[in-house]
Design a protein that fits this description.
Radius of gyration: 15 Å
CATH class: Alpha Beta
Number of domains: 1
Distance between the termini: 25 Å
Number of strands: 5
Oligomer: single chain
Strand content: 15-25%
Strand order of the largest sheet: 2-1-4-3-5
Structural class: alpha/beta
CATH superfamily: SPOUT methyltransferase, trefoil knot domain
Largest sheet: 5 strands, parallel
Shape: globular
Order of helices and strands: EHEHEHEHEH
Number of helices: 5
Length: 156
């Protein structure tokens, strides 16, 4: 099973990159996770949000490995508990599915990326900064793995 996190925005704060790396390094080799940052479209006063999101969507789709099940992170997505997330991870693993999570930029994800996803997933009802979304997703992947393996990290 291969997991790809495709995230709009190439430069994140050092603390966020370190936290993501820390959680992903804890995962076993058979649960390979790769973060693929994609360039955000430069914001300008004349550019419409629709055009910006459309340009980012081209880069997001290009970064998603062929054959991957796409999960788009979106504020209107499903609100899974950690145990539900772990169950999906187990099923994807058992079915040998590769998964790609898409994280949008400042204006979210283009509607075509969301429409082409298998799931819309919400990490929080609160708005989170994009760097923190990467950290939370990496931590939840580690936590879900700990649930599946009986590791004491998850005590919930």
């Amino acid at each position: 099973m291969r997991i790809t996190i495709v995230a709009v925005g190439q430069r994140q704060p050092v603390w966020a990159d370190q936290a993501v790396a820390d959680y992903l390094e804890r995962l076993p080799a058979e649960l390979k996770v790769e973060v693929k940052p994609v360039k955000s479209e430069p914001r300008s006063n004349n550019a419409s949000t629709t055009r910006l999101l459309s340009a980012e969507a081209v880069r997001v789709r290009a970064a998603i490995p062929s054959g991957s099940t796409l999960v788009a992170l979106d504020e209107r997505g499903r609100d899974w508990t950690t145990l539900q997330f772990a169950e999906h991870l187990r099923r994807w693993r058992d079915e040998a599915q590769d998964i790609a999570f898409a994280i949008g930029g400042a204006d979210g994800l283009d509607h075509t990326v969301k429409a082409g996803s298998s799931f819309l997933l919400r990490l929080s009802s609160m708005t989170l900064p994009h760097a923190l979304v990467r950290v939370v997703l990496a931590e939840q992947l580690y936590r879900a793995w700990s649930v599946l393996t009986g590791h004491p990290y998850h005590r919930g």
